[in-house]
Every structure is written in C-alpha cells, then in structure tokens.
Amino acid sequence: MSLRLYNTLSRSLVPFAPIEPGHVRMYVCGMTVYDLCHLGHARSMVAFDVVQRWLKASGFKVTYVRNITDIDDKIIKRALDNGETIRQLTNRMIEALHQDADALGIERPQHEPRATDYVPQMLSMIGTLEEKGLAYRAGNGDVNYAVRKFPGYGKLSGKSLDELNAGERVAVSTDEGGKHDPLDFVLWKSAKPNEPEDCKWDSAFGSGRPGWHIECSAMSCELLGETFDIHGGGADLQFPHHENEIAQSQGALGDNTFARYWMHNGFINVDNEKMSKSLGNFFTIRDVLKAFDAETVRFFVVRSHYRSPLNYSDVHLQDARGALRRLYTALQAVDAAHVTIDWTEPHAARFKAAMDEDFGTPEAVAVLFDLASEVNRSRSPQLAGLLKALGGVLGLLQSDPTSYLQSGAGVDEAAIEAHILARAQAKAAKNFAEADRIRNDLLAQGIVLKDSPSGTTWEAKA
Predict the structure, then answer these.
(1) Can you tell me the distance from the alpha carbon of 278 to that of 35, in angstroms, rounded to the nearest whole number?
(2) Is the pTM of this model over 0.85?
(3) Within a domain: 1
(4) What separation in angstroms does the CA of 342 have from each of 234, 334, 349, 352, 395?
(5) Confidence of residue 165 (pLDDT cuts 50, 70, 90)
(6) In terms of residue numbers, what domain contains 447?
(7) DSSP readout, 263-285?
(8) Structural domain tally of the chain?
(9) Across all residues in the chain, what is the average pLDDT?
C-alpha cells in the first residue's frame, strides 16, 4: 500500500497499513447538537468524507463511525431556554445536521451513534477505571479521572504534564471536594437539583450524566474494538479531548494502542481567528448556502489541504465558484464517456500519487484542471469521462453540466429560451443591433449566451 498519512501521534508522515488487511476502521468526533452546524463543522465533515472516499477508491472496506454528542451542558441550557425537552432539541438539530451534510455531498457514515444510547458502556468503563485506581469519587458527587496516575498522558499533544494547561471543558472545580488536580477531568457529573430529569441516569456513582470525553471512548471501543485504525477530528480536539480519550481507553483496557493513527483537520479562519460559536464569528452552513451552491462550498473546502488553515470570505467562495464552473464548462462541451478509472493512465496516476501522500487534494484538484484543459483541446469523450470519474472520487462534478452552469440564475428558463429564439430571428433578419440588445439585456440579468455551430446555449454568470 502506497498511502502515507500524517499521524499526529508521531508528528510525522507514516505509511498506512490497517490492522485487518483490506479493512479500515475509522472513528471521527462529530457534532454537539445544540445548534446549527457552521462552516467549521463542514470543513471537518468534508475532510473525513474525502478520506473515507479515497480509502474505498483504494480498495478498502471502510467502517466509518461519526458520533453525535446529544447530552452536554450547552444542550441542557439551550433546551431549557427554548422550553423544549432535550430529545426534542437534539432530534431537531440532528435532522438539520443531516440536511446540511447531505447538501454538501457528504456520505453518511456506517454508524452514527448517539451518546445517550451508550451510557451503560460508559458506566462500565468508569467502573473499570475506578477499580484500577485511575478514577476517584469527589466530594461534590462527580467521578474524576486522575490524570497524573496515567504515565502516558501528554503524548498526543507532545507536552509534559507541567506544560499542559486545563483547556476547554476542563475547568478547575472551586467547590470543596472537587478535583484533586487542575488537569483531572470529569467522567461522571453528579445531577444538580435544577436540571431536568431527562438528563439524569441512575448509576452506582449516583444520579448524573457522563462527561464529554468518556462518551467517545465508550462508543468507539463498542463499535470498532479496543484498538482500531484511524481516529479523526478537528485540530481543537487534540487537547484535551483526544488526549483524555487515550488516557481513559488505555487506562481501562490495558496497554493496547487505542487508535493507531490520529488525524486532525485545520481550522476555518475569519480574519485570522478560528471560526467558532464561542467567538461569535461563525457562519452556519445553511446561511452560506443561501448565497453559494453546495458544490461550490464543498469545492472551496476540498481544494485546500485538510491540515492547512482555510480562510473564509465571500471573495474566496466566489473564486471557488468560478473555478468549479470552468471544470463544468469542459464537461458541457463534450459528452463524457462512462469510464472505469485506469490508475496507470498518466492523469489518474498523478491524481493517485497526490491522494496517497496524506490525501493531497490541492494537487489532485490541479490534475482535474489539467484534464479539463485537455478536454477543451481534444474534445475527447474518454478524457471527459475520466475528469468526471476523478472528480467523483472527491465528491465533485456529478451534476449535469448544463443544469449546474444554469443554476443560480433565478429567472424563468422558458423566458430565456424565448429571448434566444427572438435573438436568432433578429440575426436571421440581419437586425444585429436588436440581437446585441437581447444579448446585453440577458447579460444584465446574469445570463451569458454562448454561440456554437450547433446553436446557442446559456448559463448563469459566474
């Protein structure tokens, strides 16, 4: 296998080989469903959608798990503020998540576990950690993980315990009887009197709910086994979330490696700051889709390397739309033949080499543009078919080219065709001034006419 990927754990590019030959097991941290998904979530979903697509294109069977966090402090607060149950809120947000992901061409994972369906597995893991002396019951009713008792803590982030700071969701308890150490994190949160009943579970540790970190450890091990191939997520999850997952899972299950390869996608930035709800500088996927078509948004993400920061702006999305339209224009000009990709063909070989080097989508997209140039020059149905097939590996170029190029015009197609007919009649009568007037009127409406020996076609202006 020629695939290499960047393993955060070793901080290096390494050859990839799954535990079970021919079968890749991958877990990616999903969304906390208290609000609509923003473009930062889209970046992660698209990045790992491309990963699993390339693994399948490379001949692997892929078992892909992307979880849903459906119990959390923010979820409880939002449900109470809205006057609805937690289940009503999370069901609604999960449906919105699916609508957004489907629009972006993101294939559904094989498993999409909800945290609340795996509480027994979480409690079992917490019990094992307590038995091994890695967890303790605090005076405030919580059960916490004793970080300094796990020798390998810090290996993912590459820092010593003294260098690490308590990050998001690792707040130090000021209550008497809380955490023994600032880096300790909660495994089981004791129920509070003012919390609704639908966020409480009975347990040997008292009524409460799981902490965030234990959720992913329990779900991944239950669905993929104690050791699996790839664990992914956003770069912001490297510490503390993924570090804590390693401590919990290896602490409970022994010295077995939890995940062999760790992958982290870069942030989407706005004015050089990470896009996030906490900073208030986020754009929801559906708000962006009001101004740009979904394939443009996907292309905007795909043409940058998944580990690189990606700067968001309307200008960048407009540039992505124009670039994508150039690819579709090549496909519009030639009827694409049905092609089974021959990976020894020079363009396909370059594409494969790019993707095999840590999923190098920028270079792979460059191959698509080279192919489009060849299609424009040669008018080859085979090359057009290869362009479409390689685009499909990235989840691109599968729409009808004419329909895509005409999309977004926001005008009556029948009226456009009537104008085209009127212009043809004016040209036949040698009334070229009228023909030019019709063309310019349509252009003012965002409609571009294209004349060819076979007739006149139109598309929406980029």
Answers:
(1) 12
(2) yes
(3) no
(4) 34, 20, 8, 11, 18
(5) low
(6) 408-460
(7) EEEPPEEETTEE--TTTT---BH
(8) 3
(9) 91
